[in-house]
Structure formats: structure tokens, C-alpha cells
Amino acid sequence: MPATLRRYRLIEARHALGGVPLVALLVGIVVVFFTAALIPRLPAGVNAFMERAFLIRGLDAVILVNEYTGIYMLAFFGGVAGLMRALVEPRENRSLEMLLSKPISRRAFLMARVGPVLFSSAVVGVMMSLFTGLAVRPFVGEGSSVSVAGAIGSGLIFTALAVLLLCVLVIPLLLVRDAFQGLLIAFLLWMPPMIPTVVLLYRPDLYEGRERLRDLVALGPNLLWFDASVPLFTAIALAVAFVGSWVALALGTRVFERAELR
Length: 262
Fold this sequence. Notes:
mainly alpha
């Protein structure tokens, strides 16, 4: 790789990232340990309700089902902040045409800006997953329904999902010209995977007679139900996320090459 291209990628990475990854990571670590400290101090009835609602058993499982939401949220929305700065901001302030006047292809520009954001989001998710395993370890004992390995693996599954959705989000963000529209699209993309779990919490009757569907779509609780199989699920999720991300970015590159700059 020519030195000038390496320097260009470094400059673009600095612009796209700023201090967002560090802030997201620090907040994520605080969230992990705060959740692990808070849940045991909640009234017993609250934790009992979550056990009944999510069909889980034990304080460790209650902690983890909340930790997974935090990992998914921080890894995704930390990346959203970076993508907004990298892709939407130039269109909003009408500087994109000037940025692309350099002797560099649109594909190289896109990868230079998006790549560091995706990598930093993956790092945030991985680190939060590792700290989640550390935080829940004191609660995992003999007879526990969950494991430290399962906790880390499940966190990696949510991380893979977040990164995949960020790759998909790149496509519409290449076309929007307003930050609010970008944030709205991001939220609409983030929410659907969580809806089946919300249904399990508030309308479990909708799953009556559909237990197999519930086991498949109730993301978060289902990883606790099948803790022993999480290592296999993690490997599958990482492979699917890798292929899906590559396809989404390839499609995004084609969209960007044909898009109007103004």
C-alpha cells in the first residue's frame, strides 16, 4: 500500500472517529459493572418478574439479559455516531463534492471512512462482552443455568448483529442529507430484532402454540435458554455477519458510485 494512501486512510479515520469510540467504550464498561451491581439490589419482586417474563432462572440470568441489551445498544449507536459524522455530515454541509475532488475513487473514500467506524464498534462490543463475563462470574456457581463462556459468546453475537446492521445502515446514509433522517433510519433498523423479546415481556400469550418460533426470535432470553449451545451459535453468527457485512458494503459501494453528490 503506498504511503500516501496509508496517510489518507489515517486522516479519514481520525475525522470519522473522533473521540466517539473511546467514550462508547468507557460508557460501555461502566454500564456493564453498574448493571451487575444494580440488579442484585433491586426489590426481589422485580427480579422475580423478569425471571417469569423471560422464562429464565437465577440472578445471573437476569443480569445477563440486561447486559446483552447494553452491548447491542452501545456497539450499534456508537457506530451510528461515527457513520453520521463520516457520511451524512459531508452531504449536510455540502462538502462531499470537494472531498471527492481528490485523486481517489469513491470506493476508497467510502472504505477509508466506514472501515474504522465498523472496527471501533466491533472493539466496543468485544470488550463489553469480555467485561460482562468478568462481571457475571461471581454470580455463576454450581447449578447455574448460565456460564461465563455463554455470557461472552452471547455478547459477541449481539456485537456481530450490531456491526451487520451498521453495514446495512451505510446504504441509506449514503443518500440522506439530514442528520435527523439518518438517526430515525438507524433507530428503525435497530429496533426490529428486539421486538420479539418485547412481545415476550408484555404479550407472552402471542407465543402460545408457537414455542419453536419463540425460541428462535426472542433474542437475548433464547441465548440464556440454550446456554450450552452458545459457542456454536457464536461461530454461526460471526460467519453470517462477515458475509452479510461484505455484501452490504459491496452494495453500498455501488449505490455511492451512482449517487449524486449534491
